[in-house]
């Protein structure tokens, strides 16, 4: 099976190119797709820092590329955008597509420990396998200069991955992240099925729990949260993360945005601020 990525589409945008690739993932045991937005290049020797974007429930690698409008500022700032898929696909595990908030399209960026879901290793895919694949196949990317961002479930992924890998990422930001999943229905459903009943294991994938362990954070964490987000009170619990950051002195800029919901209309409004936030850290 071909582990080397093959290009399956290419579209020019703001002088650069959205390119979609397919490859076989040994870690996940299936074929996966991902997008790269390459900004325009002035020379063949130019190497771009990378910003990983982790999408939310029901999404794949296409949503951010098609809806965010992030390419305009990425082009201007010279940063490559990397958008992986949100779960393994095509494995036909019983029950994988029965609900929108679990299974396919809902990998929660963790390494599942339960046998039935053993292929759901999205943490290792994002942190280890995909960066190595990029380093080996795309010399124009400088994967040693990387930052990470995401939305909702992907915001949860970005925060937890960043906190546990402060040596790998220069900065983190999130839109409406699932901030305290051990205490919300989405997180409890996913963690019970993927990780089993030991709640101590859940805390390893909860940003609010992790911040007390991994609080040597230098770059300010940026979070935008729409005040009209219907998931804010029950699922996102961003206030809990804010309290946890305050208790250990982690720099957090939490911007509550009046009138905004959970959609890509919200993301596209503020994505420029997030990319500039990361560019500042990547260029230090």
Automatic annotation (TrEMBL):
Entry EC number(s): 3.1.2.12
GO MF annotation: an example: carboxylic ester hydrolase activity
Active-site residues, Swiss-Prot/TrEMBL: 152, 229, 262
Gene Ontology terms: biological process: formaldehyde catabolic process
InterPro entries: AB_hydrolase_fold (IPR029058), Esterase-like (IPR000801), S-formylglutathione_hydrol (IPR014186)
Highest taxon in the source lineage: Eukaryota
Catalytic activity annotation: S-formylglutathione + H2O = formate + glutathione + H(+)
Subcellular location, record wording: Cytoplasm
Family: Belongs to the esterase D family.
NCBIfam families for this protein: fghA_ester_D (TIGR02821)
Protein name as it appears in the record: S-formylglutathione hydrolase
């Amino acid at each position: 099976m071909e582990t080397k990525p093959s290009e399956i589409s290419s579209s020019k945008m703001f002088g650069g190119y959205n390119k979609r690739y397919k490859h076989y993932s040994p870690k996940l045991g299936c074929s996966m797709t991902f997008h790269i937005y390459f900004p325009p290049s002035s020379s063949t020797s130019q190497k771009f820092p990378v910003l990983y974007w982790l999408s939310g429930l029901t999404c794949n690698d296409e949503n951010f590329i098609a809806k965010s409008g992030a390419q305009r500022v990425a082009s201007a700032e010279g940063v490559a955008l990397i958008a992986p898929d949100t779960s393994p696909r095509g494995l036909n595990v019983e029950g994988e597509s029965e609900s929108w908030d679990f299974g396919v399209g809902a990998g929660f960026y963790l390494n599942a420990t339960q046998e039935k879901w053993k292929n759901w290793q999205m943490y290792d895919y994002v942190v280890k396998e995909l960066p190595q694949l990029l380093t080996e196949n795309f010399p124009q990317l400088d994967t040693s200069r990387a930052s990470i961002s995401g939305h909702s479930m992907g915001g949860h992924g970005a925060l937890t991955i960043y906190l546990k890998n402060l040596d790998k990422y220069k900065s983190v930001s999130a839109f409406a992240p699932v901030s305290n999943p051990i205490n919300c229905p989405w997180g409890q459903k996913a963690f019970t099925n993927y990780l089993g009943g030991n709640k101590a294991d859940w805390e390893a994938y909860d940003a609010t729990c992790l911040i007390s362990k991994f609080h040597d954070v230098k770059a300010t964490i940026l979070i935008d949260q729409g005040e009209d987000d219907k998931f804010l009170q029950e699922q996102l619990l961003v206030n809990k993360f804010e309290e946890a950051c305050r208790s250990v002195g982690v720099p957090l800029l939490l911007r509550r945005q009046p009138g905004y919901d959970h959609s890509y209309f919200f993301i596209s409004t503020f994505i420029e601020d997030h990319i500039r936030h990361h560019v500042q850290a990547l260029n230090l």
